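Recall the central idea of this unit: under ordinary conditions, the amino acid sequence of a chain determines the structure it adopts. In this exercise we apply that idea directly, starting from the sequence alone.
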Amino acid sequence: MLILIKGAGDLASGVAVRLAHCGYPIVMTDLDHPTSIRRTVCFSEAILNGSFTVEDVTAEYADSAEAVDPILQKEHIAVLADPKAACIRSLHPDVVVDAILAKRNLGTKITDAPVVIALGPGFTAGVDCHAVIETMRGHDLGRVILEGPAAPNTGIPGNISGFTTERVLRAPQDGTFAEIRKIGDIVKKGESVASVDGVCISAPLDGVIRGLLPTGTPVFKGMKSGDIDPRPVPEHCYTVSDKARAIGGGVLEAILMLERRNAHV
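Accordingly, the structure predicted from this sequence is:
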C-alpha cells in the first residue's frame, strides 16, 4: 500500500512518522521552496538538503516520480517538490492524505485514490474526501470524521500554557527574512529573534524558539514567520509534537477503518 501525503510541514511530518513506524511506504509533496516554520521536524527540509531525519525516520528528495521507488526500497520517505501533487497521476497511491493545512481545499478530490483523508477545516467527509481528521486542540483532537466537516477555523492558534496568538511571530513588512537567533534558543520577551530588511521582530513572550523561517525567505507583511513555545524545553523542538502525534493516530485509524469498509463493499 502506497500513501501519498500532500504537504511536508510539521503536522504532515508527524503523521508520516507514525505511519512509517507502522511500515507503510510514504511519498510526500511540498513547495519547491518550502515555508515550513518548525523546520527541525519537517520532512520538507529534504527538498533543500537532499535528505532529512525526524526522530528515527529519514526522508530523501526525489527529483522525479521515477526516483521514488529506489528511495522507498531503502524504507525511507520520498519527498518531491510538487506543489500540485501532479505525481498522483503516475504513482497511483492507495491513500492520499491532504496535510497542507491551508484551511481550504486547494484541489484534493475524493477520486484521487481509493482512500482520501484530509486534515482540518476546508473539507467535508463524503464530498471531497472519505474522512476528515479534527486538528483543533481540545477534546476532539485527532477524531476521525466520516460525515461532514471538521470544526471551523477560528484563526486563533491553539492554547499553550495560556498563550495563543501571542506565540506567533509575524513579518512586520514585505521583504526578506533574516534569522538573528535560531530554533531551540531560549529567549526573553522583547529580545530580537529575527528581522525583515533590518526591521526587528522581537520575542512576544519568554520561551523557546520552536519555529523560524530560514534566512533569505521572501515574506509579506503579517506572514507567519516563527513560533515561541512558552514551555522552555529546547528538546521539544526536535521531536514530533503532541498535536501531530494525535493527528497521526487519527490518520492511521481512518486508513484502517476505510480499508475495512472498502473490503466489504
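Residues 55 and 239 are 6 Å apart (CA to CA).
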